Amino acid sequence: MFTENNPAGVKAFMAEQGLLTNHFRLPIVPLSEELYAKVKVYLSKNK
User: Fold this and answer.
1) Model pTM?
2) Does some domain include residue 3?
3) What total number of domains does the chain contain?
């Protein structure tokens, strides 16, 4: 979750759980596609 800038990791986890939309305004940028894929895999294994 904290591999890249924070709070983008937290927002990615929350977005995947349907708690918010994954939209950003500068200076926050979204997670890389690679890390976002890892978030999805982690959540699918830990529901």
Assistant:
1) 0.76
2) no
3) 1
